[in-house]
Amino acid sequence: MEDKIKRLKLLLKESGSDAILISSVPNIIYLTSYSGFSYFEREAFLIITNKENYLITDGRYAEIAADIPGFKLIETSSENTIDSVFENLGKKIKKIGVEENDLSVSEYRKIRKYFKTANLKNLQNLRIIKNDNEIKAIKKACRIADMAFDYILRKIKKGVTEKELAFEIGFFIKRGGGDISFPPIVAFSKNSSIPHHQSSNRKLKADNIVLLDFGVKFDNYYSDITRTVFFGKADDKFRKIYQTVLTAQQKAIHYINLVGRRHPTYEVRARETRVRDIDEVSRGHITKHGYPTIPHSLGHGIGIEVHEPPRLSPKSKDILRPGMVFSIEPGIYIPGYGGVRIEDLVLIKENKLEILTHSPKEIIEI
Question: Which CATH class is domain 2-126?
């Protein structure tokens, strides 16, 4: 936790502000390791100054918050409202930075009322580089996801519904000590052409595509994996699509490793390797073979949130850096027929990448 606070205080120093107000739940989790605050209502703020770190919350969380190391608790109540807290802190904090992607207009106006200057700060990249403990948690989440895939293959039978398989995935993950990253996507037949299909009561029939996209939350960190299998004997059309997607992913992985060997030091690679180049390699392979372009980014960072920087998209400005963890998930989607997506998480090391999800990727026929 200390290295994360130090990193934030370095940003604070560079910005020239007296303090930074943290309002988003993911960043609060990142800095405190406590994940009990609601995503749906405002239950806490952090205020980080050069000398002090404050955690502001109400009596429901006071006992837990008081035990979070490195933070001074400020408990709000009907007598000590958030307005009173901001007014008191505003007497010694003049210039404060706030998260530009999180506050509502009314909250921002309130902060402007009590602090002399409130500058908008983009903290999206605060969590882009993972430390050893974060990587350890993500790897554990990936191991549980791999075990869940192995488990769910045995549950794929004629007549089972998408919802039933989605439930089985969640059940296995929770039994293994994790939580689901998001409602599992289970898509049969033509439903698999919808990238973010909502699992339905559709029953599995012979000669159906089965797309499975799910993830595991472990110790506040997420994994994400997608595999596409075939229930029956795969025809040539499916095999061709599948091989094109698999090769597109392999080309992206090869490109990253090639860059690592060619430019073994971070300083050189950082000037030359944009993550959008990885997207271009994979996307180009798919369109070259006559298929529609990928309707989503090639991948996304992952950590405290399922989707966070870097973004592997055609317009991304992110640069490849050691310590990044992100997905590589090319897909081909044919409306009325179905789709294929293959997704793995990778960790960028100093001169290569490490694949973190290890479920088989050869065509599986059930």
Answer: alpha beta
